[in-house]
Amino acid sequence: MFVFSFKKGWNPDGKHCYVTGGSSGLGLALAKILVAKGAHVSIVARDQAKLDAALVEMEAARVSPSQKLQAKSADLLSATASTAALEAVCELHDGAAPDAVFTCAGSSKPMFFVEMTEQDMKDGMDYGYWVQAWTVWAVTKMLVKQKKRGAKICMVSSMLGLMSFAGYASYAPAKHALRGLADTLQSEFMLYDIESQIFFPPTIYSPGYVTENKTKPDVIKKIEGTDEGLTPEQAAQGMLKGFVRGDNHISADLLTDIFRAGTRGSAPRVNFVFEAIYDFISYVGVPIWRRSVDGAIRGHREEHDKYLHLRGFFG
Amino acid sequence: MFVFSFKKGWNPDGKHCYVTGGSSGLGLALAKILVAKGAHVSIVARDQAKLDAALVEMEAARVSPSQKLQAKSADLLSATASTAALEAVCELHDGAAPDAVFTCAGSSKPMFFVEMTEQDMKDGMDYGYWVQAWTVWAVTKMLVKQKKRGAKICMVSSMLGLMSFAGYASYAPAKHALRGLADTLQSEFMLYDIESQIFFPPTIYSPGYVTENKTKPDVIKKIEGTDEGLTPEQAAQGMLKGFVRGDNHISADLLTDIFRAGTRGSAPRVNFVFEAIYDFISYVGVPIWRRSVDGAIRGHREEHDKYLHLRGFFG
């Protein structure tokens, strides 16, 4: 029998999966799927009440009494806290490093660049990049120290880690940075037999999305108007599909597939034939897409000027 | 007569150009070219002795006695310091915002991810991203407040802002982040008639490169072995050529042209025909390039394990 794929599958059954940002949205949806597939799942997030509720949902998905499920509160914005959170969830596993890590923590606050304070800029990098990078940093050290082979780390970037447009000057840099980290590690992890993967979700209809829309300028909402999003469950299914298949760059919807093909860089290909087609679509289609976005922004100039005056920007 | 290019030229003569990282390498080479073309040039960097020497070189390139040339010492790692440095160089121009800004400041410290300390990771983002982002942030506010039309801001990323490989886990994320910022602003700046551009240089044989090679792991040197670099003068000429032409993504050597075409994302095209060719080369060639890089890294496993033991990594 011919085998057309060289990529090994991956089975969550009996594996210890560490999911950050696991109390809601994509992280929780993913945690529940992993539990239903027999994994030991540890989630961390900040809010204890949300964690408690999430753990109840995870328990409901349990398929075996031997599964170890836990939910711990942690702030992941520093190296120290991220290391402590990792060590805390590994205690239940006698200190052994996790088999799979999914860094789903993060949030976004779209707004106009000229209105961003120093804190807004820093928050963008903290909640878009460091909240995941510190966990990756801590986990990698642990995996290499324990000489654990075959582990997988999957970060969560965004379609805005592949492209960007107005409104995301604090978020897109952080999501691009995650991509830079994942692509570096994809190469470097060959030294240790660890895999680095990264997911680029489109809009996810999550609690975070609701929060994000509160500060999102109208012109951005207009640009995004036609984009179709995914439910957290759809996004988690798509993420896990690519994760299991071993895709280094994972996308779960056609629009992101196309952007991914047009900005693949040096990342390993998912499918040489499909990506050539998507790349062609991207080559021809993206400039057309750009034209409509550019038009929307240029058409917003006058209104934006009035808006800045009203906000007292000109002093 | 037919005009095949829709892009306006840009002439440095009489313009105020603000160059960060202007005391050495790319920044200094660029500053001297701008002076020779009649611009008022302000450079900032940290080291006063280097600034003094740079100013002497700039004075030697002067073409008119009315040119205002200055060199000021500043640390650009915070919003406050970057704003202060900007305001200081604008004093000589009665507080008017610069016509063109080139953020050439930055440095890189390649090393293995598992050996990076918390400080190494933070430094990577500080010296790769924030050292430029804060200036862009401060300049943009100033330009928009003064309603200055037609200004141009050019950041300096790296070929490692388009792709990455082992050794650059603190640098590639920062250089990718700059790209995310530039692409966001390219779109958002349409609200103000400002232009956001970004340069992706390959290896530049600068003082920074000499420093960087001191910590660079051997396996990385091996991967980079065949890459040809540019002198600071060559890089500055290439950067300025793309800057004048209005390219949003600027590259100055064939290898980066190819990587740029293969990871253009939603950025405006430089040349629809050439990029299609480069994209094809990238599509076929990059996986071949990857194979040799992957081979070099995999072949380094055993030696790396010995190295980590010697360094006491396993405790």
From TrEMBL, chains A, B:
Its EC number is 1.1.1.102. InterPro entries: KDSR-like, NAD(P)-bd_dom_sf, SDR_fam. GO terms for biological process: 3-keto-sphinganine metabolic process; sphingolipid biosynthetic process. Gene3D superfamilies: NAD(P)-binding Rossmann-like Domain (3.40.50.720). It is found in: Endoplasmic reticulum. PANTHER family: 3-KETODIHYDROSPHINGOSINE REDUCTASE. This is 3-dehydrosphinganine reductase. It comes from Ephemerocybe angulata. The lineage of its organism: Eukaryota, Fungi, Dikarya, Basidiomycota, Agaricomycotina.
